[in-house]
Design brief:
mainly alpha, Lysozyme, 2 domains, two-stranded antiparallel sheet, two-stranded antiparallel ribbon, about 50% helix, globular, disordered N terminus
Amino acid sequence: MKIVQKALAFVGLLSLGMLFIYALQDAPTDENFEKKLINDYNVYALQVPEYLDFAGEPIPLKDPDILERMDRELLVNTYWQSNGLLMFKRAKKYFPIMEPILEKYGIPDDFKYLAVIESGLTNATSPAGARGVWQIMRSTGRENGLEINDNVDERYHLEKATEVACKYILEAKDQLGTWTLAAAAYNAGNTGVSRRLKEQNVSNYYDLLLGEETGRYVFRIVALKEIITHPSKYGFNFREKDLYNQIPTFKVQVDTAVTDFTKFSETFGINYKILKIHNPWLREGHLNNKSRKLYLIDIPEEGYYNLVN
């Protein structure tokens, strides 16, 4: 028995020794780590397309400053791969809702990419208090007919918020003259852009000296437009089934108070979480509705959620 134990111990030590030697050979030394890094991952300079435009208005890429700024945004957004893939996924879900509303107001389709850079197509909240996919301020929302209070905040209602964004963009275009300046004004305000144009005695966005955020704004929109329109050109690989889709819903009319949205949800075979996913503008677990206003609440069609009880 002792002989067998010694033999087993020897075999075990020999195996450990071999594993240790193998580990040393495969360890990430500076030399082989560098080789693996070079072979496994490559970063390329990008070729800025010869022609790019926003809403049909050409970008003056022959200007060296403009070319460098465009190059920056293409590089930043191409190599922020996780964010890029999420934009492709969300765009498939939300663009079909936004596109017909933009068309209804006669606004170029390119403005849907403005929402991409504003919020990443999420119901974000900015430090300044702007909210929703279109990042609408409380005052702007109310001026354009949105209900905004602790109980209901229609800045989170994608269709209604898109309509408000359209109205704001049209006003800016009428005041400033170009779609490019209207896009810049969505970030800096009509008054802010007008004042800078006058101060610097120019009439074009690309001739303005602006702060960091507004100065990058249109370039970021165009970069996202270019990348989302040509994914394979910028190294993004995905299948149609990898993208997100809108879940079909039907609308339920409500013109009374709702005391408990949990119970309300259960009558349609869903839970409160699912109700909120489809109606993020409902901000509390109940609806006051003292004025008996008519609300349309989206309910997912049967069979799209497998609920665990």
